[in-house]
Amino acid sequence: MTSAGGKLLFEGSDWNFSTLARVYDAIEQVALEDLHLDVYRNQMEIISSEQMLDAYSSIGMPLMYQHWSFGKRFVYEETLYRKGRRGLAYELVINSNPCITYLMEENTMAMQTLVTAHAAFGHNHFFKNNYLFRLWTDAGAILGYLDFAKRYIAKCEERFGLAAVESVLDSAHALMDHGVFRYRRPPRLSPEKQRERVRERLEYEEQSYNELWRTLPQVRKEGEVKETAEEARDRKKALNLPEENLLYFLEKNSLILEPWQREILRIVRVIAQYFYPQRQTKVMNEGCATFVHYHIMNKLFDQGQLSEGALLEMLHSHTNVVMQPDFDDPRYGGINPYALGFAMMQDIQRICTDPTPEDRDWFPEIAGTGKWRETLLEAWENHRDESFILQYLSPTLIRRFRLFTLGDRAEEPYVEVSSIHNERGYEKIRAALARSYDVGTLFPDIQVIDVDMLGDRQLRLQHNIRNGVVLEDRTRDATLRHVRHLWGYDVSLVGVDSDTGKVVYEARADTL
């Protein structure tokens, strides 16, 4: 049985390329004409399960340099998959222009339809239009840059040896989370001309490099007049201190790195910067893609282009994806970003078309306007998870997800329910949930605050401690050793409480 008025796009579970093309055209029509999506040109590729595992291991990129950690990840993922303890994603999508979508060859035709709508149009639209992706990434250049990075590191391995290159990559990967600009815009990637400039710069540095600069004695001798406060300020200003991007600072200022090593640091931090917006938009990105595929598959069914069997198969997968396990469920791992994102998109649609009096009080600008498409498109373009939740999470969803906040103090033997379902509680719950998606609170705030290049050359780092959360000793010390490996001189780290300014701990990496 099918809905009246249309011809089925496919029957059965088998697929071929002509069927995929026919389904793609139908999905594209709904996506562009009904939802008014704006997408990059799509490039669809069919891959095997082993190729999907390989994509997992190389952080989802179609081109990537070689590193032992990728092989380790491949073996880990493959073992879980072969034992049946982990399934594979039905698709993988790359933020590039054209937007590359990988479809698993094992998918049924119904699943190929679902993931095409989800990835090739939902994620694609979000990548192209969200302000964070437009600000921090260049989708048209990333594939060319990765091709350059792969070939460049391979040449370095041939010239300087596998162990030497791997040593630099190990340290750079250890600092990857601290290799992004968070508050200012980095230079955008540019394809051929940028690579030509890199080549010319490296050739110049190699020709002008002198080994004697490694072993220059300290310029400021003991007994000399100490640096004045004004001189210290000028020195820090010249080095742009404090600096949040640790890899960038090491790349530009380390006295021991050779030109090819600096370029490897740059490659790693460019890749880290490329993924930075995805950390900030997980709920929105998945919510957008899930809402898009759900709307499209129901629209196609209403037009008589999908059978009930195909729709039920899609809904089965959709329901599994957006399920939110309870806190006492063994599968619970926090709030499911698919569940929260999809629920918020649907809730915005409801508020725009069928608001309650409560909705009109909380969202007077959109309640009852009927403009849910325009509202969603604006939200997808101009928000990240933190601001999106802070603006659009409704009391209705707070009740549906049964959210509340706990006051947990280390000195108390109990926890206190500090916000419940009332007017003041809704605001506090929404603000607390939004803060939990602030990337600035999820990763330690560590900055380069000082280094005397003419003195002891000790690199001084500061960890601004928030909410009393300090670094774990073992991983902290291991990471500091990686910093020292790239810096070449002593490295110190001081933990300072952000509220009181009190020094909580000090650590040093003065030996390799």
TrEMBL record:
**Which residue range or ranges hold the SpoVR protein-like N-terminal domain?**
14-440
Chain segments annotated as transmembrane: none
Query: Where does the SpoVR-like C-terminal domain lie?
Result: 444-497
This chain belongs to which protein, by name? SpoVR family protein
Protein's organism: Chelativorans composti
